[in-house]
Design a protein that fits this description.
Radius of gyration of chain B: 21 Å
Structural class of chain A: mainly alpha
Low-confidence stretches of chain A: none
Radius of gyration of chain A: 18 Å
Largest interface: A-B, 29 and 22 residues
Number of strands of chain B: 11
Number of helices of chain B: 2
Helix content of chain B: 10-25%
Shape of chain B: globular
Largest sheet of chain A: none
Oligomer: heterodimer
Largest sheet of chain B: 8 strands, antiparallel, barrel
Order of helices and strands of chain B: HEEEEEEHEEEEE
Shape of chain A: globular
Strand content of chain A: under 5%
Structural class of chain B: mainly beta
Strand content of chain B: over 45%
Number of strands of chain A: 0
Chain lengths: 279, 195
């Protein structure tokens, strides 16, 4: 029994398992368990938190930017569930959340902004607010299209994650990839059960908030070139490209392909920018 | 009686002067905190911080002293600072949120107000190290301590070497514990000039 526990601990200590297999499984199981309650959109948070737990970074003291990101991911999921349970969100829901979490981005990176000169604070702060607000508004508006919503979460997570690893932060990279894998778990359930599976505000808001803040973290806390953020901002646009109605499995698969194109662009920028390529 | 009192005073004045605490400012060009960690349990990997500043006081008669050291974490240097074909260097990785998180925590500080002496020389310096926003006790063992006048400027100076150890996970630096040891050994070379 002890040997089995040791083996399990060894597996969970593997960074690849922490940021891929574990969140994928947690996302899938959470989505399947909560599907009867129409709360399957919590898959994004469940998978992400499973990775945070395995990495061993749960805690609030000191309240660093990465810990604030985890907190806001949780807050986004709770707000999303409340909106989903309260009734049909309007088209202004995404904009309102965009403004709210855009302002929250300033709180997340306050300690970093304080070190900068006023002009840098203004430019960096405005950029952080704009990116977060845009990604949240554009992704939340996909709440009724589960295939596109799940694919956007997958693209944002994997794009931010892989780009962060290339930009010198493995921790943020693991968090981002975990978000992508968790949304992958949700998409697996969608492939199995079909279009009855609903992403809702719970998944779209969580994925957008975490994706935006992790990408910003890779720029502000590591070495990711800021132009990679512009590529990631195209993820919710790319998933809006036309999708075939049949066969049913084709829709989520093709949406993921669309989402991964700008995500791959962000990774290419992360790879090429340090080599002197001008962006 | 008056003559005896005057004589006693005349003797006491220089003694009192020499017993007063002396204040020194650390020379940033000859003060460098170094660190060593085990990499993959194989080699001892060394790095240092290129920029630091601080002050110390010493009261030899009262066997007391203080030390304040501030280290700029962005100055961390292992010698691996050229990317070559890689997307990042080890120094860049050390500056990220995985390790020193220099964007959020640009300084680490060590404040000590407890110094034990061996004879006239400080032997151990105990204080509080603040790293990544977390404060924990740290004791540095003084392995070398020399005070003399600078050979050219004749300014009084003191310096030496001190070492200690800490667990980085105590400060929330938990990335890569399987590959890079939790225990970090510290070696500080320092020189200070009397104010």
């Amino acid at each position: 029994m002890l040997e089995l526990l040791d083996t399990l601990k060894g597996i969970l200590a593997n960074p690849i398992v922490q940021s891929s297999a574990l969140p994928l499984l947690a996302g899938l199981v959470c989505a399947a368990l909560l599907y009867p309650l129409r709360l399957e959109g919590l898959a994004a948070l469940a998978g992400f938190l499973a990775a945070v737990f395995a990495i061993g970074n749960f805690g609030l003291e000191p309240l660093t930017a990465t810990r604030k990101i985890v907190l806001l991911g949780g807050a986004a999921a709770v707000l999303g569930v409340l909106v989903d349970l309260a009734g049909r969100p309007t088209r202004y829901t995404g904009m309102a959340f965009g403004a709210l979490f855009g302002a929250a981005a300033l709180w997340v990176f306050a300690a970093v902004l304080r070190q900068k000169i006023p002009l840098d604070v203004a430019v960096t702060g405005a950029g952080a607010v704009a990116l977060t607000a845009w990604l949240v508004a554009a992704t939340v508006s996909l709440q009724y299209d589960s295939a596109r919503a799940g694919a956007a979460g997958l693209g944002l997570g994997l794009g931010a994650g892989v780009a962060a690893v290339l930009g010198a932060s493995a921790l943020i990279g693991q968090y981002g990839m975990a978000l992508g894998a968790a949304c992958g778990g949700f998409l697996l359930l969608l492939l199995i059960l079909g279009p009855r599976v609903s992403a809702g505000t719970a998944l779209t808001l969580t994925a957008a908030v975490l994706g935006a803040l992790l990408a910003l973290g890779a720029v502000l806390l590591a070495q990711l070139h800021w132009t990679a953020l512009a590529a990631l901002a195209l993820v919710p646009v790319a998933v809006r490209l036309p999708l075939p109605a049949t066969p049913l499995w084709m829709k989520p698969v093709l949406a993921c392909v669309y989402a991964l194109i700008p995500a791959a662009g962000a990774c290419a920028i992360a790879w090429l920018a340090p080599r002197g390529w001008a962006f | 009686m008056k003559r005896v009192t005057l004589c006693a005073l005349a003797l006491a004045v220089p003694l009192a002067a020499s017993a007063a605490p002396e204040s020194y400012t650390l020379d940033p060009h000859h003060t460098y905190p170094h660190f060593a960690v085990e990499h993959l349990g194989v080699s001892l990997y060394w790095g240092r911080f290129d920029r630091s500043s601080g002050k110390f006081t010493i009261d030899r008669a009262a066997h007391k002293g203080t030390l304040e050291l501030a280290v700029e974490t962005a100055s961390v240097s292992t010698g691996d600072n050229e990317r070559g074909s890689r997307p990042r260097t080890l120094d860049e990785h050390l500056k990220s949120a995985d390790f020193f998180n220099v964007a959020e925590f640009p300084r680490m500080t060590f404040k000590a107000d407890s110094v034990t002496f061996a004879g006239d020389s400080p032997a151990e310096i105990s204080g509080q190290l603040t790293l990544l926003g977390v404060t924990r006790p740290l004791t540095l063992k003084v392995e070398r301590w020399v005070c003399k006048d600078h050979p050219f400027s004749k300014k009084p100076m003191c310096g030496g070497n001190a070492s200690g150890a800490l667990k980085r996970s105590d400060f929330g630096m938990k990335y890569g514990l399987a590959a890079v040891s939790d225990e970090v050994r510290l070696y500080v070379q320092f020189e200070g000039y009397k104010d």
